[in-house]
């Protein structure tokens, strides 16, 4: 019984850390998007538009059916046409994916 109480307490203590980590990923992704992506992409609904009409806006990417953080992060790390290779680390790609998905229209 006592072990169960400690386990529940441990699970509850972990919840705020997980939520905070997600917010930090979005913040890091926002910074990366402003530095590297905003020249071509519209990175938020209220942000100025990017200079490349062929580059989809982040809210549009986020609204795509089936868009997931894992899928976006993987796509960002693969070479693809019309986008420079920024040499993103896995963490940077995950942070950008978190920020992109945070732009999903509500």
From TrEMBL:
GO molecular function: electron transfer activity; heme binding; metal ion binding
Signal sequence, renumbered to the chain: 1-21
InterPro entries referenced in this protein's UniProt entry, alphabetically: Cyt_c-like_dom, Cyt_c-like_dom_sf
Location of the Cytochrome c domain: 24-104
Record keywords, A-Z: Heme, Iron, Metal-binding, Signal
Pfam families tied to this protein: Cytochrome_CBB3
UniProt superkingdom: Bacteria
Protein's name in the database: Cytochrome C oxidase, cbb3-type, subunit III
Organism of derivation: Falsiroseomonas stagni DSM 19981
Organism classification: Bacteria, Pseudomonadati, Pseudomonadota, Alphaproteobacteria, Acetobacterales
């Amino acid at each position: 019984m006592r072990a169960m109480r400690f386990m529940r307490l441990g699970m509850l203590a972990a919840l705020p850390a997980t939520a905070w980590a997600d917010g930090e990923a979005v913040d890091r992704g926002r910074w990366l998007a402003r530095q590297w992506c905003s020249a071509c992409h519209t990175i938020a609904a209220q942000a100025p538009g990017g200079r490349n009409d062929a580059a989809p806006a982040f809210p549009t990417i986020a609204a795509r059916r089936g868009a997931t953080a894992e899928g976006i992060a993987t796509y960002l790390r693969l070479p693809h046409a019309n986008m420079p290779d920024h040499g993103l680390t896995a963490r940077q790609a995950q942070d950008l994916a978190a920020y992109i998905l945070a732009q999903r229209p509500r």
